[in-house]
Amino acid sequence: MSFLTLDHVSHYYFSKNNYTKALDDISFSIQKGEFIALLGPSGCGKSTILSIIAGIIKQTEGKVSLQKKEVETTASEIGYMLQQDYLFPWKTIVDNVLLGPKITHTHSKNTEQKALKLLKEVGLAEVANAYPSSLSGGMRQRAALVRTLINDPKILLLDEPFSALDYQTKLKLEELVSKLLKAYHKTTILVTHDIGEAIAMSDRIFVMDANPGTISKVFEVPIELRNEPPLLVRRHPKYQILFDKVWEELDQRENVQTKKVVSINNEGD
Amino acid sequence: MKATNTDEQLFKAYLSKVKKETKIVYTWQVSILITFVLLWEIASRLYWIDPLLFSSPTTICQVIIEKFSNGSLFTHLEVTLLETIAGFLIGTLFGILLAISLWTSKRFSRIMDPYLVILNAMPKVALGPIIIVALGPGYVSIIAMGAIISVIITTLVVYSAFNEVDPNFEKVLISFGASKWQIFKHAIFPATLPAMISTLKVNVGLSWVGVIVGEFLVSKQGLGYLIIYGFQVFDFSLVMASLVLIAIFAAIMYKFVERMEAWLIKHSSS
Asked: Which residues form the ABC transporter domain (chain A) (predicted)?
């Protein structure tokens, strides 16, 4: 049984004097506990897919269902983590983490303890009562991760959560996220433009194509890589093989795109 | 040990330099004031300027002391201060409430747009006579003048601050399923608190304008009334004395709001 299903989803962005087709006929389904990476160039509609699944924007056409129920509005069933941490600077770390329970009116002594436990798990117990401005980028992103996890979402949407970090912090955080998500059996969709990250973390990689956004190819990550932590995956011989394949696919797509642009420009002349 | 000593010395040298600079600034500020008052006094006594029109610092002091000692100045001062504070609070509050209602509905804000532009461009004191006819010749009209002058500008400033809040904060909250009110409470309000507080400072000054003009038009009490009265009976010492008092109390109020701003900002973010 599939957990999350996108059925012929298309999305348009309208403006006063133009419209763009951001997504064209996207269909896929994900099993419970699976880790999916959406990989592609910027502007291919990766983030749009996440926003649609999260219910922040409504798709123009098609259907999204989570456990056979159609996704209508946002609910606590979905955890969404953005590119930057977007911790509220006027709230302490623990108050930031408790935003979810407060909004869904499930806040209690229990959730507070859970927040502290999760913060401890990601190594932020000492700064629970500090303000975000006194934390480093990596720490802030970890706090944001806890904020996303506290409501126990059925599915996690990660929108390039590591892209604003320096390389070392990024690798460490990948390691932590991967460990946590495995421990809690979370279903996850990760949006990224980093091939290595996609291979290191996910079970399947959907390569996307831009203008309009479509899924051009799906790569299965070899079973040997799936259960390894990201740092070890990067050293595995099969990692490089898959990396090259994905690279080739992306490269080909880019060439096609360039030709498209060139032909459009020529038409204009 | 020696190295830390010199570090300490450098720091001390820096501090004393800062202190000295502040001292120079103060000295200049005080000497400008003294020179101005002295020149005024001398010019008046030597008839370089007409003392009947421009009065002199000593006469003004005498007027103030005399009016204070017979108690008549207190009522005037009290009336004007209360009217200004009331006008300021009402204007700011209504302005913020209006901004919130604009934020709540995009359509409402689009509908209201041209009216706000006109109301903002309009010189509010020109509405004085109409307000007096509508609300009666009393303190209610004057408070209304003090309020109306700051309402629209507060609305516009606060509403644009609402719109400048990073939409991603909203996105985070929406992903938890937050309602409009929750978004306002957790993101919009705390994010724009500094902007709202800074409108307070502007509004204090504006309310003084509204109240004084209101008192010019209709009143039997207040500093604005004293100015008009002094003008009519050709007692320019009284006019000047009222002006001096307005300057002092407007500055005190401004400083008070500034303190409050610093306090609020400190306690809302830490």
From this structure: 4-235
Chain B residues touching A79 at Cβ < 8 A: 175
What's this model's pTM, rounded to 2 decimal places?
0.80
Judge residue A251's burial from the number of C-beta atoms within 10 Å of its C-beta, 0-12 exposed, 13-18 middle, 19 or more buried: exposed
Q: Please tell me the predicted confidence (pLDDT) of residue B80.
A: 92
ipTM exceeds 0.90, yes or no = no
pLDDT in tens, B49-78: 888 888 889 999 998 898 888 888 888 899
Going by their DSSP bridges, the two strands A155-159 and A18-30 should be labelled as unpaired
Return phi, psi of residue B40, to 5°. Answer: -60, -50
Compute the Cα dihedral for B70, B75, B81, B85 and give only its sign: positive
What tokens were used for A267? 């038409």
List chain B residues with CB under 8 Å of A111.
none
All residues of chain B having their beta carbon less than 8 Å from the beta carbon of residue A74 are 174-177
Q: What is the DSSP letter of A107?
A: -
Q: Which residues pair with A6 in a beta bridge?
A: A28, A64
Q: Does A79 touch chain B (CB under 8 A)?
A: yes
| pLDDT attached to residue A72 | 64
pLDDT at A26: 85
- Reading the block at residue A148, the tokens are 């996303």
Nearest to A187 by CA among A63, A3, A1: A3
The verdict on a CB contact (< 8 Å) between B171 and A76 is no
Percent of chain B surpassing pLDDT 90: 46
Q: Which residue in B has a C-alpha nearest to residue A86's C-alpha? A: B169
Say yes or no: B201 contacts chain A, CB-CB below 8 A. Answer: no
H or E, element range at A262: helix A237-268
Mind listing the pLDDT tens digit for each residue in B157-169? 999 999 999 988 9
State how far the alpha carbon of B219 is from the alpha carbons of B29, B132, B207, in Å: 37, 10, 16
The pLDDT of residue A76 is 56
Dist. CA A211–CA A198, nearest whole Å = 22
User: What are the pLDDT digits (tens) for B219-261?
Assistant: 788 889 989 998 899 888 889 999 999 999 999 999 998 888 8
Q: Quick one: tokens of A102?
A: 């407060």
- B265 shares contact with chain A (CB less than 8 Å): no
Q: Looking at residue B112, what is its pLDDT?
A: 93
Determine the longest span between alpha carbons in chain B, in angstroms.
79
What SS3 state is found at A128? coil
In 3-state terms, what secondary structure has residue A78? strand
Task: For chain B, give the number of residues.
Answer: 270
Among B136, B149, B137, residue whose Cα is nearest residue B84: B149
Tokens of B131: 């307000």
Reduced 3-state DSSP string for A236-249: CHHHHHHHHHHHHH
